[in-house]
């Protein structure tokens, strides 16, 4: 990832390939560095920008040569929209900064500087976050044909500010970097093929991250899971050569605590074939990413210490590979979850809710006051909301805090109902529950299933099946793994209940 520097200086005298400056669409749109540069260029920049489509609207960019008139060789204007703030506008700005950096990179810039009008911590954090997130690439498996792409070096990026703002800006850059590091980790894990990322290697990654980021980490293997009676997680993992595990990370803040302990639970199916209720070839194509919930939990946990979060946080990752073999679980089998509820398997492809069942009960027993699970759980959530996350919650306060957190980050989420009338659709024939309840309202049914394992603790469920992957590059979201959930969780954990 690009390391962003902060230096005291002036935009006009900084010799770089591209100088990024923001321009708002309001009446005072051209102030600060943009106005200074425009004056130094005899008003030419404003004129040329006006002749092109550039109006200063959020998300727009405009690149201009300076022909030696000032030290920066090119200037890239980034539209900041109207000056007032709002979460939707903020996200457009975040995207604008990502587009600005992308156009500078595409123009071949090796050195890039960024100058702000009146540097405010929120604005800088947002800008740096947008730029870093937008510059993500996963080149690990580029080979002989893509050597040049693989070896491409990132540009140097420096934020230029007045001497008096250096400390404040440095802190904002540090926070944005911590957040982006968490998102990068989640994206890397989702991008990695299932041949390399299985429950065992996921546990190894979590152990490493914990050691370097101030977390405790315990990995519960098959023997411990058997002792705990985690029959649902064990059942799903039975068909794989790699045993399932439950990864338990803990973050305990030094010093003052604000807000009760919270649990984050991630579905981490490192590959979902569907099991004997096998998927189609097409349906299986993106199923190495069926661990995006677990990746989001690990990505968020990685950043807690760097962001100085004031709550105790338990991160639980339910890891298994849903494979087919002589040992695999079958339709018709009955599994017993950790809380004694028995589950008749009507589809081995509804495996996410099974591993989460044990994960939720386990988490509830850690003494948390609320818990949030993240899972690429249902195709029905994709049909209902596309790339918007479906949020379900047993508690209105928790739902509101999560929706606020999501809105602040630009990760779109929409609340869906837990329709109690549908509960009878999950009644088992020979066991307590069955794990599917028909196609209508499939995402709701899955959430109702999970609620049985929330043990009466305020609980929320984020179905990220449609938001974990993006089919195209847009703003700060490159094609492929999005790392969704990491920023929502961090924003939620940074603002404890009133
Ligand atoms: N991992 C899938 C859900 C999924 C689908 C995620 C598409 C991302 C994109 C999940 O395990 C699954 O297979 N769900 C089934 C449930 C059904 C059998 C009740 C589904 O949605 O079809
Ligand atoms: Mn499945
Ligand atoms: Zn799945």
TrEMBL record:
Q: Where along this sequence does the record place binding of Mn(2+) 1?
A: 272, 349, 351
Which reaction does this enzyme catalyse, per its entry? Release of an N-terminal amino acid, Xaa-|-Yaa-, in which Xaa is preferably Leu, but may be other amino acids including Pro although not Arg or Lys, and Yaa may be Pro. Amino acid amides and methyl esters are also readily hydrolyzed, but rates on arylamides are exceedingly low; Release of an N-terminal amino acid, preferentially leucine, but not glutamic or aspartic acids
Q: Does the keyword Cytoplasm apply?
A: yes
List of residues binding Mn(2+) 2: 267, 272, 290, 351
Give the enzyme's EC designation.
Answer: 3.4.11.1, 3.4.11.10
Concerning InterPro entries, the annotation shows:
Leucine_aapep/pepB (IPR011356), Macro_dom-like (IPR043472), Peptidase_M17_C (IPR000819), Peptidase_M17_leu_NH2_pept (IPR023042), Peptidase_M17_N (IPR008283)
Query: Does this entry carry the keyword Aminoacyl-tRNA synthetase?
Result: no
What subcellular locations does the record give?
Answer: Cytoplasm
Q: What is its main location?
A: cytoplasm
Instruction: One GO cellular component term, please give it.
Output: cytoplasm
Any single biological process term in GO: proteolysis
* Cofactor: how bound: Binds 2 manganese ions per subunit.
CDD domains given in the database record: Peptidase_M17 (cd00433)
- Tell me where on the tree of life, at the top rank, the source sits: Bacteria
Q: Cytosol aminopeptidase domain location, by residue?
A: 347-354
Chain segments annotated as transmembrane = none
Enzyme active site: 279, 353
Q: State the needed cofactors, names only.
A: Mn(2+)
Which HAMAP family does this entry report, sorted A to Z?
Cytosol_peptidase_M17
Please give the family membership noted in the entry.
Answer: Belongs to the peptidase M17 family.
Its biological purpose is as follows: Presumably involved in the processing and regular turnover of intracellular proteins. Catalyzes the removal of unsubstituted N-terminal amino acids from various peptides.
PANTHER family registered for this protein in UniProt: CYTOSOL AMINOPEPTIDASE, LEUCINE AMINOPEPTIDASE-RELATED
User: What's the protein name?
Assistant: Probable cytosol aminopeptidase
Species the sequence originates in: uncultured Thermomicrobiales bacterium
């Amino acid at each position: 990832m690009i390391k962003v520097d902060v230096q005291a200086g002036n935009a006009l005298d900084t010799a770089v390939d591209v100088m990024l400056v923001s321009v708002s669409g309001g009446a005072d749109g051209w102030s600060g560095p943009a106005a200074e540069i425009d004056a130094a260029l005899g008003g030419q920049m404003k004129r040329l920008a006006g002749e092109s489509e550039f109006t200063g609207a959020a998300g727009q960019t405009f690149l201009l040569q300076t022909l030696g008139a000032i030290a920066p060789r090119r200037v890239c204007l980034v539209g900041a929209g109207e000056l007032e703030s709002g979460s939707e506008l903020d996200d457009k700005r975040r995207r604008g900064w990502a587009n600005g950096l992308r156009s500078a990179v595409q123009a071949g810039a090796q050195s890039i500087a960024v100058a702000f009008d009146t540097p405010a911590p929120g604005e800088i954090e947002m800008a740096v976050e947008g730029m870093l997130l937008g510059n993500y690439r996963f080149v690990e498996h580029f080979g002989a044909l893509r050597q040049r792409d693989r070896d491409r070096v990132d540009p140097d990026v420096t934020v230029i500010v007045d001497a008096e703002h250096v400390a404040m800006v440095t802190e904002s850059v540090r926070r944005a970097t911590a957040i982006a590091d968490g998102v990068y980790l989640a994206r890397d894990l989702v991008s990695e093929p299932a041949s390399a990322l299985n429950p065992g290697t996921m546990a190894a990654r979590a152990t490493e991250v914990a050691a370097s980021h101030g977390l405790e980490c315990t990995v519960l293997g098959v023997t411990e899971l058997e002792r705990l009676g985690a029959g649902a997680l064990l059942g799903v993992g039975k068909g794989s050569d790699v045993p399932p595990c439950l990864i338990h990370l803990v973050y305990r803040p030094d010093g003052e605590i604000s807000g009760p302990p919270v649990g984050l639970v991630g579905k981490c199916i490192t590959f979902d074939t569907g099991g004997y209720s096998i998927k189609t070839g097409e349906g299986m194509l993106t199923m190495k990413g069926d661990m995006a919930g677990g990746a989001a939990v690990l990505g968020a946990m990685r950043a807690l210490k760097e962001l100085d979060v004031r709550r105790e946080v338990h991160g639980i990752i339910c890891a298994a590979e849903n494979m087919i073999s002589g040992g695999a679980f079958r339709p018709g089998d009955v599994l017993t979850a950790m809380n004694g509820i028995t589950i008749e398997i009507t589809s081995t492809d509804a495996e996410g809710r099974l591993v989460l069942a044990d994960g939720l009960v386990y988490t509830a027993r850690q003494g948390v006051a609320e818990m949030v699970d993240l899972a690429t759980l249902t195709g029905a959530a994709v049909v209902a909301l596309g790339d918007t996350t479906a949020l379900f919650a047993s508690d209105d306060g928790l739902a509101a805090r999560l929706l606020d957190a999501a809105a602040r980050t630009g990760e779109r989420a929409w609340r869906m109902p837990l329709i109690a009338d549908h509960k009878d659709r999950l009644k088992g024939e020979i066991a307590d529950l069955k794990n599917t309840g028909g196609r209508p309202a499939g995402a709701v049914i899955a959430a109702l299933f999970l609620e049985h394992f929330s043990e009466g603790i305020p609980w929320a469920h984020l179905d990220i099946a449609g938001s974990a992957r993006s089919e195209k590059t847009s703003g700060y979201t490159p094609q492929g793994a999005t790392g969704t959930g990491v920023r929502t969780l961090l924003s939620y954990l940074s603002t404890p209940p009133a």
